[in-house]
Amino acid sequence: xxxxxxxLPKCQLELIxxxxxxxxxxxxxxAAVEISKNKxxxxxxxxxxPLNIVIQNxxxxxxxxxxxxxxxxxxxxxALDQExxxxxxxxxxxxxxxxxxxxxxxxxxxxxxxxxxxxxxxxIKVKPSKEVKIEQKDIDKVMEDLxxxxxxxxxxxxxxxxxxxxxxxxxxxxxxxxIDGGQAKKHQLVIGEGRMIPGFEDNLIGMKADEEKxxxxxxxxxxxxxxxxxxxxTFKIKITGVFKVELxxxxxxxxxxxxxxxxxxxxxxxxxxxxxxKETKEKQRVELELxxxxxxxxxxxxxxxxxxxQETHKMLHxxxxxxxxQGMNFDDYLKHMKKSEADLRLDFTPxxxxxxxxxxxIRAIAKQENIQANEKDLxxxxxxxxxxxxxxxxxxxxxxxxxxxxRSENAKQYFSNVIINRNTLEMLKAKIVNRD
Length: 436
Hints:
Blueprint: E1 2-8, E2 12-19, H1 21-38, H2 51-58, H3 60-82, E3 92-97, E4 104-111, E5 116-117, H4 136-149, E6 152-156, E7 165-174, E8 177-190, E9 212-218, E10 232-246, H5 252-257, H6 263-297, E11 299-300, H7 305-325, H8 330-337, H9 341-368, H10 375-390, H11 399-406, H12 409-432
Antiparallel strand pairs: 1-2, 2-4, 3-4, 5-11, 6-10, 7-8, 7-10, 9-10
């Protein structure tokens, strides 16, 4: 097998691979077996007809094309191993010469793992996590949110006041034109919670059910929809219901209603959860700072486009999942944002590049430091993942299939990478964070 190499931009490489007629012969024999399994040839059992008979019955070029496919499958990864090449995507194959009595030549274009010059760890300094403190106001806010979750409301025949829940229809206009997403039917809000733009809820005070009103307000200058920021809007509203909101008392019974022993237990649980949440965020902040400094100080070859495309594709699907979890239609979301999927992909590109560099850097450092996943860690990771599914009733009727998938070789490779990445990050933190 002859191999010629040609370097291309952005970590691509072109391989011209040539098989002699002798090297192609086994693949012709394999093609004959495969074709004769599926095509009835008189006088021969399926898969038993000799090559010359298969050629007579199926056509010479069909046999050669089938053999060419087998030859590519049988030689491309041998060629990559022979040249010690690490690729990041499936090779793109183009047959250049396939004819009876001639060598078989094909071109393979591959995207290579880019070279990374990992920085000297001693040049990086990251301050350790800050001590997490939970203030009383943090606990009070959560307790108030819990009260609102357990609030009861009752329909009233009265004028609205602060603290009431109202149900209303509204339409929004800018320059007498209805704005996208500026309409709602039977929308509910609690007056005073500040869910709407400043001034909107104040205009609802003193109204009764079936009463209508029109008023003007300016959108905030720093509004998430830039096309509306700072603009004057006209709101036409109709109150369809007024509800008195009754919040539960904060006492031991309230603690019990939340599944805990008493009020003190509830407050202790809230404080513990807040502390854990803040500690997690602080840990993530340190890790992010560490990785950003390592990326800045290290040197990367040009990244293959395919890696950036894959990451932006992944980020787009993450956004679609988030939008769906919020009960929104993704097409409606795009209309509201006045963007297309192509716009989002472009917006994602800087972060996609950063995510690709992070993954490649951790991979390079793990290789440099010989960090691997041992069988014990892999077994524990698999069992922990499987146990989490067993605790979730939603997967009760899928456990057998999930267990089969989790114990597959592909899954083991995935979990192995997870462990290696985690251990590499811990090693970096041990070497760089907390260092004087």
